[in-house]
Amino acid sequence: SLSPTELIDPVSALSGEKPELKETEHWYMPLGDTQEKLEKWLDTRKNWKPNVMGQVKSWLNDGLADRAATRDLSWGVPVPLENAKGKVLYVWFDAPIGYISATKEWAEQKGTPEAWKDYWQDENSELYHFIGKDNIVFHCIMFPTILMEHGGYVMPENVPANEFLNLEGKKLSTSRGWAVWLHEYLEDFSPDLLRYALGTTLPESKDSDFSWKDFQARVNNELAAVLGNFVFRALSFTQKFADGEVPELVDPQQIDLDALKSIETQKEKVTQALETFKFKEAISEMMNLARAGNKYFTETEPWKTRNSDPQACANSLHVSLQICAALSVLMEPILPDSMKKLRNQLSYSGKVSWDSISDSMLEVGNSIDPGEVLFTKVEDEEIEAQIARLEERAAANDPTSKFTPLKENIGFEDFMKLDIRAGEILEAEKIEKSDKLLKLKVDIGIEIRTIVSGIAKHVDMDKIVGQKVSVVANLAPKKLMGVESAGMILMAEDTEGNLKFVDTEAESGSTIT
């Protein structure tokens, strides 16, 4: 990237103003002096993601430079020093401190003003930062340095930053309309579906992409076909052939015991993945328990054993229902609404906690009510509508789409026929009975012309005299509202239909080519 002084003729994209170089005084964080201390602390951090630690090491290898902690701005947190008038704190100096302030405010609102210390000053408290990769430096270098140098505060245990999530192969951009707006999404789909789709597409170690087609595939092929299908099979079969109650497990076979054991096995895998911030892996292992349940239900064939071996059928249903109950808590972090619905279908009234996940969550005789299926398939038409909405909004927000389309090409000879001159407005008056037309006296160097221009609604009459303009000087004269006009003033029309002068600093009479 280029520094401001390396840019050629830089101007503000917002105001058009040119930047000015000024001398000023700032307060700095002496990161260079604290680098060695910071590196020793970072060496004690274990299991940090490679993309996070890699970026941090890159900064350290280049050597930390002192970083300005103040800015010359009118907006921000004022620097609380007498000799710092007009200075505010650099946003990434005060923003992390705001985490502490927010905790203090929360504690005060709860009526326990000292409770914030349990989070920030208790050595048993663990601090985690869930952020994007563009903020790694602030949460892994700047904020830890502040905490370390102040003392008395817990240091970050881990900073499991993610990379960037794109949308349909492009960067997300709310200003360009390339985004999914939550309130619109919720008009069409359950929040659980998006939580699951995003969870399985997380950019944990590299940038990833969310697409509506993938969303559809995740819902149809995983939530509906695997999890939803297993739950519906187990619950509906119980309702039809076991009087809608959890049957007793008697003399279980090895296949039954193995299926029950898979509950604890998958719980351990999910726990390990969550504790190491591998959320995609955690969701995959959650779904693997549903896959195991589906496989078990198919292999034990309760639809056959209900007549030939009723107890084997009962065992199959008991085990399947216990797996459903385990799933209802195991998948709670990702699918809270759907899993609450499942627990209601199972009449589960126990604790909803990680410790409650086991192979005996449901009591024998619990009432089972399958109700509606947990997930229905998303149809192609629904996805096409979402993609169309996205593309339509993006087109409406495309800056280039708001301008008048280019006209047909003309030959060079036609262009050379135009005589465009720099001019200066000497006089201006409104034409009677017209709210649009102005009668202008314009100096085009070789003579002074009378030009009628339809710009009355777009200019300030008090400032128009002396305005430099571009004039088509060889346009055939034409009478407008009784006044002969000998030329045309060139104006620029913006996307809102407003007209502005095409400024020129050229001497009146200069040709524009």
What is the level 1 CATH name of the largest domain? Mainly Alpha
Compute the average pLDDT.
Answer: 93
Principal-axes shape call: elongated
CATH topology assignment of the largest domain: Isoleucyl-tRNA Synthetase, Domain 1
Q: What is the helical fraction, as a range of percent?
A: 40-55%
What is the CATH-assigned architecture of the largest domain?
Orthogonal Bundle
Outline the structure in words.
The chain is α+β, with helices and mostly antiparallel strands and 513 residues long. The chain folds into three domains: 137 residues, 3-Layer(aba) Sandwich (Rossmann fold); 238 residues, Isoleucyl-tRNA Synthetase, Domain 1 (Orthogonal Bundle), CATH 1.10.730; 90 residues, Nucleic acid-binding proteins (OB fold (Dihydrolipoamide Acetyltransferase, E2P), Beta Barrel). The protein is 41% helix and 12% strand. It is built from 15 helices and 17 strands.
Question: What labels describe this entry?
Answer:
OB fold (Dihydrolipoamide Acetyltransferase, E2P), five-stranded antiparallel sheet, Rossmann fold, 12% strand, 3 domains, 15 helices, 513 residues, alpha+beta, 41% helix, Isoleucyl-tRNA Synthetase, Domain 1
